[in-house]
Amino acid sequence: MDEFGNWQKQYLGPSIADLPRPISFNILLRLPTKRLLVCRCVCKTWRNIISDPQFAKLHFSTAEAFPLVRTLSPTHISRNLYLVEPPENNSGFDLREYCDCNGHTKRHFHMKLETKLKIPLRNAELAMNSEGDANVSSNSKGGVKRKRCIKLRPKDHKLNLVNSCNGFLCLSEPSRNDPVVVCNPITGEFINLPVPTQADESTKSDCGIGFNPKTNQYVVIRMFDQQEKFCGRVHEPITGREIFSHRVAEIHTLGTDSWKRIGCAPSSTYGYKLKFPSYLNGALHWLLMDYNISEYIASFNFVKDIFQPVPPPPLRRVFSWPPLRHGMISWETMKNMSLGVLRDMLCICDHNSDDFEIDIWVMEKYGVQETWTRLFCINATTKGSRWLRGVYEPISYLRSGAVLFFHRLANAVVYYNAKKPFVISSF
Predict the structure, then answer these.
(1) What is the pLDDT of residues 282-300, one digit of tens each?
(2) In what order do the strands lie in the sheet with 372-379?
(3) In terms of domain of life, where is this protein from (predicted)?
(4) Reduced to 3 states, what is the DSSP secondary structure of residue 273?
C-alpha cells in the first residue's frame, strides 16, 4: 500500500490534504459559510480545521454575518434553520415585477433557501425510548417495515430560539423559556445546560447567551421570579426606582456544572418583561417593556456582572395625554419598537404607526448617546397604500446598502433598498 501511495503521488500529484495546515487554514478562512458546510465533508484534515474553535472565531470576525430563518408550526417540531443569503451571494435570488388586478406594478423578491441546518431535539433520548417501536410495523409478508419518522408532540419535544452570540445559539424550553441548550448550528455540536433553580411556574424567564471577552468564556443568563411569595422593596437595577420585586438573576459559564445567583434582576412596576436580547461589546441588551420610562434599554455586562442602562436615541415625540415628561416614551411607541445589532452597532427600529414610517437608529460609538444616528427613515406603505402594521425587526445590513427585516405578524422577511421600492418575501 505504501508503494501504491507513492506511485499515486508520483503520477497524480499531491492531494488537497498534503497542503500545509497554515495554507489550508488561510484558504478556508476566505470561504462563505455555505461553502464551509461542503468543505467539512471533503476530508478529515479540512473537517478538523473547520471544527477548530480558533478557526470559528476568526471566520466569524471576518465573514459577513447572514441571518438564519426558522419555520414555525403549531403541529410540527421545527428543527430546520435556513441560511438567508443576500442577492449578491445567492444565485436563487430573483426580483420580479407583476401587475395586480388594479393595474398597479408591484415587486416581490424570491429567494431559494438551500442551506439547511438543524438544531437539537429536546429530550431526544426520552423521545426515542418513550415512543419505543412507533416507527416499526409489520408488512404483509411477516417482515419488518420501517417508517421514516417518529411521531412526537411539539409541545414536549421542540425548543425555542432565544438569541445568538458569535454564531452560537441559545435554546429554551417553550413553556417557561428557561435556557436548556447552547448549540453551534454549523458543526451540529451542542451542550446541555445544568438544570436551573426552580422558579414560579406561573411566570416565564428572561434569558440569553453572551460572551465575556476578559475570560474568553461564554455565559448564559436567566432571570425569574423566586418561589418565595414574599416581595421585598428593592432598588431596580436599571431605573433605580424602589419597587416590590422578587425577580432575581443567575448566570452559568459554559464548561461549569452550576448556576450562580447574582442578585436582583430588571423588573417594572407593571410586571413587563425584557424583549429582543442582542449581544454586543461584552454585554447583552434588551428592551425593558414598561410604561413611560426613559431607561428602556437594559444591558448586562458580562465582565463586571452588573446590569446597566444604555442611553437611548432621541425618538420622535408621539402625542399622548397627559403629556409625557422629558425623555419618556409612551406605551404606544414602546410596543412598536425592536432592538438589534447592525454592522456591530446597537440598533433601534421604531415603527411610527401614525405616519406609517420606520426609523432605523444606530449607535455609532457604543455607550455615547450623542452618537445615535438615524440611518434610515422608511415609508412603510407600498404601492396601492398597503401597510404592514406591527413590529419590524432588523436582522442584517448588507454591503449593498440594503436592510433585511423580519416582520413577525406577516411571517415575512422584508428587503429594503433605498434605490428600490419596498419589497416583501414571505417564507
Answers:
(1) 999 999 877 667 788 999 9
(2) 337-342, 345-352, 357-363, 372-379
(3) Eukaryota
(4) coil
